Amino acid sequence: MKKTIEFLKKQPLITGLIGMIFISLSVRYLGPRMVGNLEAGAFRLALALSAVVFLYLISREKAFEKCNNRTGYVLLVLLPTLIVSIIGFFGKFAELIMNGAPLANGWFTAILILTFEYICVGLLEEISARGLINDALLYQFRDSKMSTKSLFVTIALVDTIVFGAVHVIGSDFSTMSAVGFGLLKIVSSGIGSLAYLLMYWKTRNLWAIAIAHGLLDYLIDFPSTLLQEVGNTASNTQDYVSMTGNLAVANLGMQLIVIVIDAVVCIWIWKKHMKDVDFEEIRRTW
């Protein structure tokens, strides 16, 4: 065991790859077996802790030295990434209220459990997608002859593609439309994740990024957890990749809107907040 640990410490890329494969396969095959938000949250918390172990093997204590660095600033900068979720939040509330939806039974406990679940979702996805992928590639190639620009562009491409692809694991791609929606989802999720990566480079504050990420999905699910959906307001759980008819059209429009908004946000973050980031220093000292 000791030799294995020492090997993993010396091979960051292999360590990161093993960690991502383990987490992705666990989410794909064990995730659907989780019953209820509490069990799903506990499952993701366990995976987040396993991601912490893999990240520690790569970057040791440095991975967590700046986890409280400029938390308020990170959350403020990432606020625009929540635009679509905030619109969905108020839209869903309005729909439920107009349809006379009552308070759900046990709503207070349900909200607490939902909060726990999405904190765990944010932690898992950011420790693995931002922490593991970035640090594994950076530690593996920072002493190579690759230029600094090429190194960070490579990290950004790998991070966005992998993060986007994880969101369609297990989807049904038996039709051309499903393939198209899957690719669109990869692009939309990937571009959105780039904003988190930029803030990770800027501050190395994984916790603040995880909170922002968790809010993204939390806001969407909050209204239907607080209020009981009835009749036509009942949630549709159909996989967004295999949607058909009006749902497919709505999904297409939503993904395109998300891509545009997230692309604008990423450009804004890059131009306004990344000017003072010394990538050469990050390469040497991260």
Describe this entry's structure for a reader.
With 286 residues, the chain is an all-alpha fold. The protein has twelve helices and no strands. The chain has one domain. The longest helix has 35 residues, at 107-141. Residues 233-237 have low confidence and may be disordered.
Helix content: over 70%
SSE pattern: HHHHHHHHHHHH
Record field, number of beta strands: 0
Domain count: the total is: 1
Shape: globular
Please state the structural category: mainly alpha
Major sheet characteristics: none
Low-confidence stretches: 233-237
Fraction in beta strands: under 5%
> Mean of the pLDDT scores?
91
Please tally the helical runs, counting DSSP H or I stretches of 4 or more residues.
Answer: 12
Q: Any idea what the radius of gyration is?
A: 20 Å
Beginning-to-end CA distance, first to last residue: 27 Å
Describe the secondary-structure layout.
Blueprint: H1 2-10, H2 12-29, H3 36-59, H4 62-65, H5 71-78, H6 83-98, H7 107-141, H8 148-166, H9 176-203, H10 206-226, H11 245-273, H12 279-285
Helix pairs in contact: 2-3, 2-7, 3-7, 5-10, 6-10, 7-8, 7-10, 8-9, 9-11
